[in-house]
Structures are given as C-alpha cells and as structure tokens.
C-alpha cells in the first residue's frame, strides 16, 4: 500500500527480524556469528532474517569491510543501508516546527526550522506538509519509506487526527494530510511520548528494562513514562503536568493558584524581568525556575518511584549551572530515601528532531519485513 495512517510502535521490539535489524543498526558492521551471539538467535534463524532484510533492501553485505583472513558469507560484515532509503518527519511546536529527513539508522541528513503557521488550521497543516514534501523531494535519489509527525495536544494515533489547544486545531487530520502529500504511510504521535521513544530506540544501546520517566519543559510541559522498553500510550491520550501547583513568588507574584505551565516559559521570565527591572537570565529568575522544575519532577517521582528520569527542553537546560540546581531542588523535595540522578536527554538541543525521526522509523524498527512489504 501507499499512504495511510499507521499507529507508531514506540517500543523495543523482540521479533527475530527486529532484533537482527536492531543489532546491525547499533553495532554494525557485524557478522552473522556476532549477530547470533548478540541476539541469542540460532544460526539458521539469523540466516533467514538476514536474507529477508537484504531482499527488502534494508541491509547489505559488505565483504569489502572483512578482514584479510575472513572467507565466506558467515564472516562477511553486514550493515544497514544508509545510502538508498530515507524517512521524513516533523515536530510541530507551538511556535516553531522542525522538518527533518533521516536515513534508516536515524541519522539526520538535513533539517531546518520554520515558523508554525497560525490562522486557518487546514491551511496551516497544508503548508507544513508541502514544506516537508519539498524537502523530501531534494532526496529523490533515495526511496522515501515513511513519514512521521510528533506534535503536542491530543493525538488519535489510529487516525492521525489532532486537537491542539494552543494552535487552536480541532479534529485536524494531520496524518491523512501528510500521507496524501508524501504518498507514504505516516505515523502521528504525541511529542513527549516520541521524545521518550527516541531515548529507547535511537540513542544506541540502552537497557530499556524497568520504569522510566521523561520530562519536557519549554513553552509547554509534558511527561511520558516507559515500562520495560515500551512507551506507555494511554488509550484516551496523554495526560498533562501543566496544571501542577507550584510556588513561584518571583515569576508569578500575588497569584493564589500558580501552575507549572505559568512559570516555565520565556514569556514568564521576560515578564518577571520587566517587572523587577532585571535581566531575564538573572539568578533570581533562573534559580526559581530550576527550583520549581526540580520540585515538580520530585512530586511525580514520589508517586511513581521510577528507575530512571530523563529531562529535556530549554527550561531544564537554561540555567548557567546546567541541571545542578534542578537536581538539588529535586533531592530536597523528594521523600523517597534512595537517591536518583536526573539525566539530560542524549539528544540535547536536537530532541525535537529526534522525536520526529523516531515516529517515522518506529513501525519499521518494530516489524521491518511486514512494514516494508506493504509499501
């Protein structure tokens, strides 16, 4: 088939084909013997999966990479095909949208940022889809496999329909619009869930066991949870942490009910700076924001008690001392006795880009043979 909306698969897959593709992607070039040792699959199963993946153009034999004393196919290195295939994705933010083209391994080939259009919602999504299609057209020498959209708001993953309060989008068919424009299957996912998936799927070898929390804070705030290598996607859509009550006398003085969403963005910092006659990057402002974030993360930590916590977004990274003030506030506020270090996203300032890419690749990674066979 061409086109259509397919739900993203935000998980570490365990099918033989997925396991072999994953091992080649993160460790290649690798031989069949090394694949058997890495995956625990039998030599016969490895050979079947390698044959099927190669037949669909996802991997390639690279005898030119073999050592001088290695002879025969079992010793011939295997790599993913980084030269013939690509995916297209976009992360739609409240103010800016990231457009990106990536190869099968998740490596960015090109990306750039455009302003998220305001006004009529159909015109806005049509404009963004046209811009992504134009960007994909520059890579006509590659076969475009899939499209992906990471976006805030409420996302119906089955249909790709989006409601976004800030953008004033209501029942907007984002997935269908992009699928028609690209003539490929498309997946659409809530953006913080996609960022959490990127940590699992794109950041190289990582133990996905246990429970993890992923927090994002920029102009908006969100949280996602991973359970045993799978991003938890609630049946009725992602929840919110924007309403969490906070104490912020510098950023929001005089208010009886202050919410996390009110104090984390640049607008709140600028308003406080103008009111106080100080710089937006002054310690009074950035220290309070770091404290608020640390306390908010600690509150959720105490409820769920995860094994890991990862954070991303400008609100977390804006302090001159990095995450140290957030960690200190977290340690002070959490009531759980054992310590837990807050880790930054391994994608840094490219976290939105990684979210778009992983949504476009997730179905292929989860079931590569079935996904590509339908194209």
Automatic annotation (TrEMBL):
<dbReference type="Pfam" id="PF12802">
    <property type="entry name" value="MarR_2"/>
</dbReference>
<dbReference type="InterPro" id="IPR036390">
    <property type="entry name" value="WH_DNA-bd_sf"/>
</dbReference>
<dbReference type="InterPro" id="IPR000835">
    <property type="entry name" value="HTH_MarR-typ"/>
</dbReference>
<feature type="signal peptide">
    <location>
        <begin position="1"/>
        <end position="19"/>
    </location>
</feature>
<dbReference type="Pfam" id="PF00480">
    <property type="entry name" value="ROK"/>
</dbReference>
<protein>
    <submittedName>
        <fullName>ROK family transcriptional regulator</fullName>
    </submittedName>
</protein>
<dbReference type="GO" id="GO:0003700">
    <property type="term" value="F:DNA-binding transcription factor activity"/>
</dbReference>
<dbReference type="InterPro" id="IPR043129">
    <property type="entry name" value="ATPase_NBD"/>
</dbReference>
<dbReference type="InterPro" id="IPR000600">
    <property type="entry name" value="ROK"/>
</dbReference>
<keyword id="KW-0732">Signal</keyword>
<feature type="domain" description="HTH marR-type">
    <location>
        <begin position="16"/>
        <end position="64"/>
    </location>
</feature>
<dbReference type="InterPro" id="IPR036388">
    <property type="entry name" value="WH-like_DNA-bd_sf"/>
</dbReference>
<comment type="similarity">
    <text>Belongs to the ROK (NagC/XylR) family.</text>
</comment>
């Amino acid at each position: 088939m061409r086109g259509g909306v397919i739900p993203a698969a935000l998980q570490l897959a365990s099918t033989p084909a997925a396991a072999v593709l994953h091992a080649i992607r993160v460790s290649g070039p690798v031989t069949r013997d090394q694949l058997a040792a890495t995956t625990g699959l039998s030599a016969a199963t490895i050979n079947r999966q390698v044959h099927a993946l190669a037949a669909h153009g996802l991997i390639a034999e690279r005898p030119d990479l073999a050592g001088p004393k290695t002879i025969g196919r079992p010793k011939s290195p295997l790599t993913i095909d980084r030269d013939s295939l690509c995916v297209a994705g976009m992360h739609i933010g409240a103010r800016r949208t990231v457009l990106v083209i990536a190869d099968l391994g998740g490596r960015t080939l090109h990306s750039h940022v455009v302003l998220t259009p305001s006004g009529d919602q159909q015109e806005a999504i049509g404009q963004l889809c046209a811009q992504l299609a134009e960007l994909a057209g520059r890579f006509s020498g590659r076969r475009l496999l899939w499209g992906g959209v990471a976006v805030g708001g409420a996302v119906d993953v089955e249909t790709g329909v989006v409601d976004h309060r800030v953008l004033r989008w209501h029942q907007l068919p984002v997935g269908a619009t992009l699928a028609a424009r690209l003539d490929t299957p498309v997946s659409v996912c809530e953006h913080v869930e996609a960022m959490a998936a990127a940590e699992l799927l794109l950041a190289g070898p990582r133990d996905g066991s246990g429970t993890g929390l992923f927090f994002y804070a920029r102009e908006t705030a969100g949280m996602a949870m991973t359970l045993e290598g799978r991003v938890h996607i609630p049946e009725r859509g992602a929840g919110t942490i924007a309403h969490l009550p906070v104490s912020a006398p510098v950023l929001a003085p005089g208010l009886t009910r202050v919410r996390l969403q009110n104090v984390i963005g640049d607008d709140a910092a600028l308003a406080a700076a103008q009111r106080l006659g100080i710089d937006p990057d002054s310690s009074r402002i950035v220290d309070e924001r770091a404290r608020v974030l640390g306390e908010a993360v600690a509150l959720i930590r105490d409820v769920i008690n995860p094994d890991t916590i990862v954070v991303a977004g400008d609100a977390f990274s804006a302090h001159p001392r990095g995450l140290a003030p957030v960690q200190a506030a977290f340690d002070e506020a959490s009531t759980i006795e054992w310590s837990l270090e807050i880790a930054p996203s391994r994608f840094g300032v490219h976290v939105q880009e990684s979210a778009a890419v992983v949504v476009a690749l997730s179905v292929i990674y989860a079931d590569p043979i079935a996904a590509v066979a339908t194209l």
